[in-house]
Amino acid sequence: MRIGFKLMAESFDPLTIVDQAVAAEEAGFDFVEVSDHFHPWLYSQQHSGFAFSMLGAIAARTTHLGLATGVTCPIMRYHPAIVAQMAATTAVLSRGRFTLGVGSGENLNEHIVGGGWPSVSVRHDMLSEALEIIHTLFTGGYHSYSGQYFDLEDARIFDLPDTPPKIVVAAGGEEAAKLAAELGDGLFATEPKAEIVDAYATAGGNGPRYAEVPLAYSLDIDAAAEAAHRTMRFGLAGWKVQAELPNPVNFEAATASVRIEDMRAAFGCGPDTERHLEVAQRFLDTGFDNLVLMNAGPPEEMGAFFEHVRTSLRPRLEDLAS
Predict the structure, then answer these.
(1) Active-site residue 37, yes or no?
(2) Active-site hit among 37, 39, 124, 276
(3) Segment 189-207, tens digit of pLDDT
């Protein structure tokens, strides 16, 4: 089992994100994963820096911390050739520490380029083509490609790492899990659904399985739940809603009925290690082996959260996994 930390680029400015990654390495995390968005989910978040710029800065300020996107959509806002170049450069800068997390995206971020918002089946087909292009460019040399959705003409990535970055594919359902097995090196999910992991394994997937564990640390349980409600209540809407709404104003409306008590039920709120283990156990039991700890608690207690993980939570998680 590996334990990572979620860098919430919608909730913190880019300089703070880089500082959090450095602190995560010092606290003993194995890797960090940064969201790749154009818009925040909610107006209360107020940030959304460019993920790959932050990853380059993190690579320069850390030595052994793994880096990942969680996740990049290579089908609309970015052409897959550009994603391949960004990933290759990040892998070079981090000396091989980068993992490319990809998915079929959210309307929130992709509609900005004016291409409409395709159905999920079309997005999966687009993602398949995109992954073919990225894999091809990672092999070196000049390449062209003519597909239903993407074209590539005499393209070559000149700066490639010694080993291509691993590609982890996000899945919210069984079809995407099959795609992860066929074209990816691992699986990424945000919910502890056994059917996703089972579909991935049945389709031949045997790579790492990443999942985000929703926590909100604070010595005050009420403060933890209130902070999570302020910035993370969108997560309770479910992936189908998250993928379809176009702007923060829509998420504000869609989550108006989410209560603080709902956040308590979904998140590990407060300082109690046992409660945090209870939430993490859902993902371990489902078969995930790369746990990405998310902290939606008050920002001023982030340092205390890192210390909590280092001294209390991580040792207990390792005991559970073994």
Answers:
(1) yes
(2) 37
(3) 999 999 999 999 999 999 9
pTM: 0.97
**What number is the average pLDDT over the span 262-285?**
97
The residue assigned the tokens 């691993």 is 166
Q: Based on the residue annotation, tell me whether 308 is a catalytic residue of this protein.
A: no
Q: What is the pLDDT of residues 212-222, one digit of tens each?
A: 999 999 999 99
Helices 51-61 and 80-93 sit at what angle, rounded to 10 degrees?
Answer: 10
Collect contacts of 91-96 with beta carbons under 8 A, ≥24 apart: 91/161, 91/164, 91/165, 92/159, 92/160, 92/161, 93/55, 93/56, 93/59, 93/60, 94/55, 94/58, 94/59, 94/67, 95/59, 96/161, 96/162, 96/163
d(CA 253, CA 262): 16
pLDDT at 240: 83
Q: What percent of the chain has pLDDT over 70?
A: 100
User: 10, 106, 212, 301: which one is catalytic?
Assistant: 106
Q: What are phi and psi of 200, to 5 degrees?
A: -65, -45
Question: Helix, strand, coil % (nearest 5) of the chain?
Answer: 50, 15, 35
Pairing of strands 151-155, 143-146: antiparallel
Residues 6+ apart with CB under 8 A from 307: 27
Q: What domains can you pick out in the chain, each with its CATH number?
A: 2-321 (3.20.20.30)
